[in-house]
Fold this sequence. Notes:
Blueprint: H1 2-25, H2 31-67, H3 71-97, H4 110-117, H5 123-139, H6 150-160, H7 162-275, H8 281-289, H9 292-324, E1 332-334, H10 336-346, H11 348-351, E2 361-365, E3 372-374, H12 376-395, E4 403-411, E5 415-422, H13 429-432, H14 452-464, E6 467-472, E7 478-485, H15 488-502
Parallel strand pairs: 2-4
Antiparallel strand pairs: 1-3, 4-5, 5-7, 6-7
Helix pairs in contact: 1-7, 2-3, 2-5, 2-6, 2-7, 3-5, 4-7, 5-6, 5-7, 6-7, 7-9, 9-10, 10-12, 12-14
Adenosine-5'-triphosphate (ATP) is lined by residues 385, 389-390, 393, 422, 424, 427, 431, 435, 440-443, 448-454, 478.
Catalytic activity: ATP + protein L-histidine = ADP + protein N-phospho-L-histidine
Coiled coil: 203-230
EC number: 2.7.13.3
Amino acid sequence: MKNQSNNSKILSNLLYFKLLPVLAMSGLLDLKPITAAREINAAVVNVSGRQRMLSQRTALFALRLVCTQDVVEQEKLRQELLAAINLMEKSHNGLINGDAEMKLPGNPSPTVEAMYFDLPLNLDKQVRNYITQARLLGEIDKSELTQDNFHLQYILNASATDLIKALDAVVSQYQQESDRQQLAIDLHLAELYQQSCEATEKAQAQSQKLEQALTDLRSYQTQLVQTEKMSSLGQLVAGVAHEINNPVNFIYGNLSHASEYVQNLLELLQLYQESNSKPSHKIQEKIEDIELDFLIEDMPKLLSSMKIGAERICQIVLSLKNFSRIDQSQMQVVNIHEGIDSTLLILQHRLKVRNGLSEIQVVKEYGDLPLVECYAGEINQVFMNLISNAIDAIEEVTDRPGQITICTELLPSDEIVVRIADNADGINRKIKARLFDPFFTTKPVGKGTGLGLSISYQIVAEKHHGKITCNSQPGQGTEFLIQLPVQQTRKSTAQLSTAFAAS
Length: 503
Ligand SMILES: Nc1ncnc2c1ncn2[C@@H]1O[C@H](COP(=O)(O)OP(=O)(O)OP(=O)(O)O)[C@@H](O)[C@H]1O
Ligand SMILES: [Mg+2]
């Protein structure tokens, strides 16, 4: 029982001191009425206990009053007796009728009221009789102050038996009622606390959902913008490639015929010259005019260089087609070096000398790579983003020639690595931490959107189960490393088996 009441006190303290302020702050609870109820309870229990104490004090003063012979002492004890009895009367009235100063509401419960006004206790009557007897004793003549005085006997008897028992019963009744009220308050608080927890949980879940939706939306928007950008570029490149393709094939296809025809004509000319050793003056003039010997010597060279040029255009067209790969929504097995080369071709205009910027040298250290299974167009986007960033960084440097080094390598883990490094100023730690955040850019408005690396991360890490990392020291350039599994399907089977082994 004692433990239970201790626990209830601990719970009540916890609720009162720890939870009440929280609940009040959350707007769920009006603290004022609860605090007032607690104060009233405490005051009622306190005053009823005081009644008990005052009755005992009065008895003590009364006894001492009849025992002392000292007149001064007697007078002092009379005053104290009357003061105690006045206080007792005040408290008694306060408990029954109320007293704002003592925080007594004056509305005793039916049980307490019965104890005061009904039999068997009839405490009101007992208290008033006691007060009357004590006052009479306090005011009687000195000669009547004997130990067998009626008033004294009444006081001693009541304070030791009936009155004290009745006061004890009322104190305990007040205490019980206060405990019950407190328990009700505690339960109410616990309920409110639970409600507040549930409300907080709900709010948290909702805010998490909202946050997630916002993140998804941003990421979707990012992808959309970048996909749109790349697909426009891809379409443009594919369109140009397609348009050039036909006329170039036309030229290239006819060049061999043209060579053959020219060769035939030259042979015929030679035959004419042999059969007619003395050409007319007019012909001779023309031969000198057109520098026939030089023409005969130069013509095959000219045709062969035209052929080389046409072949180069064909290669470029092929590269452009390779870069765009817009029609490929399926994974393909491709040559990664071709992807890098075609990207470099697209960016050629930024690598060459141009208005005030010197040429950027590209060093390729290609390893022996197998064909790699990937979304080729998207992997080319990654190369495009990384090489563009390297060029942007190099353009900021003025005191040394720019260089981009691209290395590739096959790892024993059946993954390929592509390293794209520049010799620009590098990236400081603060910026490095945010590199892959969508919309993070240090470039001026209109130049950078801050999407290049975040999209590259999505393509490499999420779509291809690869890794993209950055090594950079301020002042020492930057290297981006892309790691891709050679085969996506095998990789996922391997992942599955690892997961299986781990479980
Ligand atoms: N090679 C690099 N050297 C120095 N800083 C770099 C390099 N690559 C990226 N950064 C830094 O990372 C930032 C983010 O790059 P990201 O490619 O995501 O966006 P961006 O190039 O600014 O804009 P966008 O690519 O969308 O046009 C850049 O603004 C730049 O500060
Ligand atoms: Mg960029």
